[in-house]
Specification:
The structure is a homodimer of 223-residue chains. The first copy, chain A, is of the alpha/beta class. Chain A has one domain: P-loop containing nucleotide triphosphate hydrolases (Rossmann fold). Chain A contains 8 helices and 8 strands. In chain A, strand 7, helix 7 and strand 8 form a beta-alpha-beta unit. In chain A, helix 2 packs across helix 8. Chain A is globular and about 45 Å long. The interface between A and B is large, with 66 and 66 residues. Strand 4 of chain A pairs parallel with strand 1 of chain B.
């Protein structure tokens, strides 16, 4: 074994996104629209989870989906088929949405009459965690095949999420994934986070997740 | 089903990274060092694949690993244990390495006596594809649980990779993953790409991958 060292490289500074995000959040609150910012790696099951969520809640709430993506429109197509109002937002290579970009997407979609908007953010555990989008709450999906060590590697995302969906639990026996270790690592970063194991494939846990979203939406509309 | 629309958002322009990358590549060529830029999503198995690769080649080549990560040093620790010279590069939140950051990492590690350097890039299918790091070749890992639709969503990465490792093929029966569809989608973007199915867990395909890396390293050193 040879030794290794750690070196640090500096980051550029971003402009004032927080003010814009605060304004957007207030505007949505006045309109009675609960916006959820949904983040994850590529392939963790954001879109399938969204389809399940729409199915669970579409009788009660009018739902809009902002599908952010580098390219393609497959996700917007999918969620529109499931019964949501949907807009695909192309980011021209950028790996996140900030509040201003989110506002552009919302304006293009129109939020009139909507109760819930889900921003399906770019598939990415890094950049997306750095920008307040103006959402009421931040949700994150981690899928079992990605591994229980991810909180060690992407602490910012796990720290800023209000709720963590652990997806693909139907595949748990197939991977070395220790749910207790995961929960320990996540809670160490973020003691207040709600963790909900789900399988978007089988539907397991979707009820609990829909309950959370229903309760948060009602709280938001009453505030 | 309601309609959806596509809107475009503009990207900021990056500075002159290509010149720096060209210079670094030439410097490495003169030193006889083959640098591979290894990219993937979080959790696709980059580090496990690297450990297998080091095991397969460490008798023949001196290998150095640059572990780029937002945080933590678990990966550098792991590959150092496998017998490679390793440096962990923290990027302070940035989601990619450019040529200058790579050069800083190489300088910190020292390339004297090395035949192969693998840059384990940040877990990310977007930002990493936008920057020439100065590597001789670009490799990408896609893991089966991420899905066969990823070339539709991250075309830049699939277009710029010289070789694609499709990892976790031991889990193929568990997921709806169509290898033929994947290959079609990838080859449409990038007809010349080499695609190698592997399982870093069982070792399947690692021989073919090691052969590719061996051949490319020898070509590079003779050029």
């Amino acid at each position: 074994m040879e030794a290794f060292r750690v070196i640090e490289i500096k980051q550029s500074v971003f402009d004032n996104n927080d003010r814009k995000a605060g304004e957007l959040r207030e505007e949505l609150r006045r309109g009675g629209v609960f916006m959820l910012n949904l983040m994850s790696s590529p392939g963790s099951g954001k879109t399938t989870t969204l389809v399940r969520t729409i199915e669970a809640l579409k009788g009660e709430f009018a739902i809009g989906i902002l599908e952010a993506d580098i390219d393609s429109d497959v996700d917007a197509r999918t969620v529109a088929l499931a019964g949501a109002r949907a807009v695909q937002v192309h980011t021209a290579g950028m790996c996140h949405l900030d509040a201003d970009m989110t506002a552009q997407g919302l304006e293009a979609m129109g939020t009139d009459g909507l109760d819930i908007v889900v921003l399906e953010n770019i598939g990415n555990l890094i950049c997306t965690a750095e920008f307040d989008t103006g959402a009421a709450k931040n949700a994150m999906i981690l899928s079992v095949p990605e591994g229980d060590d991810k909180p060690l590697k992407y602490p910012a995302m796990f720290s800023m999420a209000d709720v963590l969906l652990v997806n693909k639990i139907d595949a748990m026996s197939f991977f070395d994934f220790d749910m207790e270790k995961l929960v320990d690592r996540v809670k160490k970063l973020n003691p207040g986070i709600r963790i909900i194991p789900i399988s978007a494939k089988t539907g397991e846990g979707i009820g609990e997740w829909a309950d959370w979203l229903r309760a948060e939406t009602k709280k938001w509309k009453q505030a």
